[in-house]
Each structure stands twice: as C-alpha cells, then as structure tokens.
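Encode chain A's predicted structure.
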Amino acid sequence: MRFYFPKEYKALIKLGVPITIGQVGLTLQNLADNVMVGRHSTAELAAAGFVNNMFMLVLLLTIGFSLGAVSQIGALYAQGNKKRIVEVLKSSIACDMLQGLLMCLVLVALYFFLPMMGQPDELLPLMRPYLVIQICSLPFMFVAGAFKQFTDSINDTAVAMTIMLIGNAWNIVGNWLLIFGNCGFPEMGIEGAAWATFSSRVVIMVLTIAVFFLRPKYKTYVAHWKTAKMCKADMSKLNRLGWPIAIQMGMESASFTLVAIFLGWMGTNVLAAHQVMLNMANLIFMFYIGISSAVTIRVSNYNGLQNMRGVRHAAVAGWQMILCLGIVLSIVAFSFRHDISFLFTDDAEVAAIVAGMAYPLVLYQLGDGMQVTFANALRGLGDVKMLMRYSFLAYMVISLPLSYLMGVVLDWQAFGIWMGFPFGLTTAGILYLRRFLKVSYDGKLRH
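Encoded structure for chain A:
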C-alpha cells in the first residue's frame, strides 16, 4: 500500500488553497464581528455568540444539504457532460430554496423559544433583533451556495474564494461604520453587526450570479441555461443525498452548539469564553475544510471515471495533509492560550476560562481531522446514509451526554463541557474511515 502521493498533494493544494482562503476569510469575518462587538460590550459578545451558535446549526444544515450536488456535478464534469451539469444546478437551486424556507421557519420558532432556554435575562433584548436580521439574510445565502457548489465541483475554486473575500471586506467595513457609529452613521452596536452581515450576503449573491452569467469561461454552461430543465428525478436524488449530509453536519455542529445552553446556565462570562474559543476552533477547522473539500471534488471526479484507486489515493493524501496541519495549528493555539481572549475582551475571568478550554481543543484535533477527511470522501462518492447514523452515535449518544456529565454533573464547568468533544469526534473519525475503506475496496456504492 502506497503512503506517498505527490500527484494528489499537488491537486489538493491547487483546489484546496482557494477554498481554505475563502473559509479562513469567512472565519476572520466572524472573528472581526466578535472582536468589534466584544469591544462594544461583553454582554453583546455573549448575546451574539449564543445567537450565532444557534444560527450556525441551521446554516450548516443548509450548507450540508447543498453539498449533495457536489458528487453529481463533480462526476458529470469528469465525463464532460455540461448540459447535465446545468440541469443539476437548476434543480439544486430549487431544492436549496425549498430546504432553506424550512430552515427559516425553524429559526422563527427559535425566536419565540429564546426566553425558555435559560439564558441570562439581560441578553434577551440583544438577541432578538440580531436573530431577526440574520433570518432575513438567509435567502441570499441559499442562491449563492448553490452556485458555489457548481464552481467548486468544476474545479474552479478560486471564484468562490474571490467573492467571499470581497464579501468579508464589505462586512468588516460595515461593522466599523454601524457598530461604533463612524463616519456619521448611527451607533447601533450588535444590531449594526447584523445589518453589516446582511448587506455582505446580498453582495455575495449578486456577485456570484453575475460571475456565472458574464464570465467567458462559463459561456458554454450559460448557453445551456435556457434549454436545461429541472426534473423530478434530479430533485429527488439531490434530496436523498442532501438530507443525510445536512443531518450529519447538523449533529456534528449540535455537539458544539447545544452546549452553549449548558454554558449559559454558568453565566455570561463562561458563555463569552465559549464564544472566544469557538472562534479559535473554527479558524483551525477552516484549514481542514479547505483540504477536505478538495478531497470531495477529487473523489467525485475519480468516481465519475469509476477509478476507485484514485478515490483512495485522494482521500489518504488529504488525511495526511490535514494531520500535518493539525499538529502545527494545535501547537500555535496552545502556545497562545493565555492571550487569545484579549482580542475580544479585557475581562481576566474570561481569559482564565479560555486558557483551560485549550486543552480539550488540542486533544480533539486528531479525531476532527480524521472525521472531516473521510466524511468528505464519502460525500464525494455519494455514499451518505451511514454518515447520518454514525454521526448520531458519535455526537448525540457520546459527545453531548459526556459534555453534560463532565461540565454540569461533575461541575468541571467549561473545561468539562469541552472535554466531551474529543470522544465524539474521534468516534466519528474511526467510523467514517471504516465505512470509506469498505466502500472504496468493494469498488461499488451501496446506498
């Protein structure tokens, strides 16, 4: 068995670096949001953090659902079937909009349940308007997301990166203007951050559509736009692929998101510390996402050509690269564990809590790298049903209960809450790897 894949490293870097830059840019946008909001007030940081955690759970369900198109478009791209790619793209846009409408209704329900979630009373007036504005921004993300999966799947990952960076810059400038009231704008605090994010999502959608219809490289796809039709078969298949991915990603996110409820019981400072550490964790994870998303694209291309040997090489090469990244990034994060929180707030208690949470953060990197690599490899193959079952076991049966046990019952506070993550992520990684090896060596998919 080979353990060195220079061809795959080169391809994964070419595809993955633009995705990584775009994802890191998105994380830095969220980081900038939290830094600016935190500088305005610690209470607003805690409120924005709680809403963002809940919102991110729903957002990941939407992103996960849209990923169902990647295995289909990636395989068609390898086969050179451009008309079918446009047909799948159209069907994907329709499916994403319908699924997104359901997610909006979930967030509306969350708005009415906020008072029942045991959070500090002083945060509720800050949470409500912030959540409403975030909900209104979602439809713009659905359309942009469908086109992003198209451009990524045809190996043109630099497009989404460029658009994302423009949107990030727009959001940061909007934050500076609206949170603090610079250049004659009203000082809006947390609501200003929400409106800046809203406007950036509109900009991203407009740019994404404009690039598709105006870029010369896509003229063949645009030529098929009028004649290509959505069909029930494509929509049905996208739903069969998209929902298991969405649920798998949602349960993974829930293991991080739902613990915010437990942390909220422990006070505003603990919740703020959780938000600080989540920003660091997400920044590390975005590097993993870049490489693992490239794995999805390579695997889908090889699968379209029925090349299972190439599938295995792409996945293993991606895992090796993510493992190396994890070691380097863990060392950096642990070295600066006492200083991270001061980017957001001067509160010494928050800083002490964050430093303690760095230990479980480092512990779970191996499992996290494994699970994200082989989850994405299985998505590229379109083998997603077992992902949903495995993620339920890893996150709902193992990670979340352990977080409650160690954090609440044993009263280890934030450190105990975060200690549940290494167990869940490592379990998921082992199960996904086992499934990938079974499917790739069988040489055929079992849906």
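The chain has a mean pLDDT of 90.
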